[in-house]
Amino acid sequence: MKKSVAELQAHLSLLHIEREEEIKQYEQQVASLSLPQRREKGVAWHPLTIVEQGFALGEFGYVIVERTRELNKPHRFRAGNVVRLFTTKDANGEVDSDEKGVVHFVDKNRMKVILYSKDLPEWLSDGKIGLDILFDDRTYREMEHAVNDVIKADNDRLYNLREILLGYQKPNFLRESDYFFRPISF
User: Fold this and answer.
1) What b/e sequence results for 138-177 when a residue is b if at least 16 CB atoms lie within 10 Å of its CB, and e otherwise?
2) φ and ψ at 141, to 5 degrees?
3) What does the DSSP 8-state code read for residue 70?
4) How many CB atoms lie under 10 A from the CB of residue 42?
């Protein structure tokens, strides 16, 4: 095994450790909070009314929700956030049913969520609807994918760049005269 590959695999294992620690901290700081505490921190909206529901591209269900209290209060919801749409059993905020989705847009007290399901939940009409921001590990998945691509590189430009950037190969440069008259293939 090349030293560069071993070095990148070590970085990959550190990336896994970092991801697990971030998940753990998220659970300690957010997921373990009560519903009123999550609302106070701006990571939950509850209660909500369903303004519109239907199907988006790819036939995925969507809902447009609106806050019914704490209007115009600052929050942390942004387009692209992974969220959990839920219904509660009681005033304590104990979750009865939930469905994950992604925020399409947020406009003051209104939000559109595209669900990861092709069906709209039957419990939407039951009331006591809320939204939570979930931990989003998308960046970690993308970083892992990119590092794996660099690890798999073999006898191509990415391979050369890996070896040069990690210090296992010296860079080589073309003479200026060769550079301007060298044919380029795309």
Assistant:
1) eebeebeeeeeebbebeeeeebeebbeebeeeeeeeeeee
2) -65, -40
3) S
4) 14
Q: 3-class SS at 91?
A: coil
Alpha-carbon torsion 161, 166, 169, 172, what sign? positive
> Residue 105 forms beta bridges with which residues?
112
Nearest of 35, 61, 65 to residue 52 by alpha carbon: 65
Q: What own/partner pairs with CB < 8 Å and gap ≥ 24 does 56-61 have? A: 56/104, 56/114, 58/118, 59/118, 60/114, 60/115, 60/116, 60/117, 60/118, 61/114, 61/115, 61/117, 61/118, 61/119, 61/120, 61/121
Q: Which amino acid is at 162?
A: R
Answer yes or no: are the C-beta atoms of 155 and 2 closer than 8 Å.
Answer: no
Contacts (Cβ under 8 Å, ≥6 apart) of 8 = 147, 150, 151, 162, 166
- For residue 142, what are its two tokens? 């993308």
Q: Looking at residue 184, what is its pLDDT?
A: 65
| Tens-digit pLDDT profile for residues 49-86 | 999 999 988 889 999 999 998 898 999 999 999 999 99
Distance between CA 71 and CA 44 in Å, rounded? 13
> Considering the entire predicted model, what is its pTM?
0.74
> Rounded distance, CA 49 to CA 12, Å?
43
Q: Which amino acid is at 150?
A: V
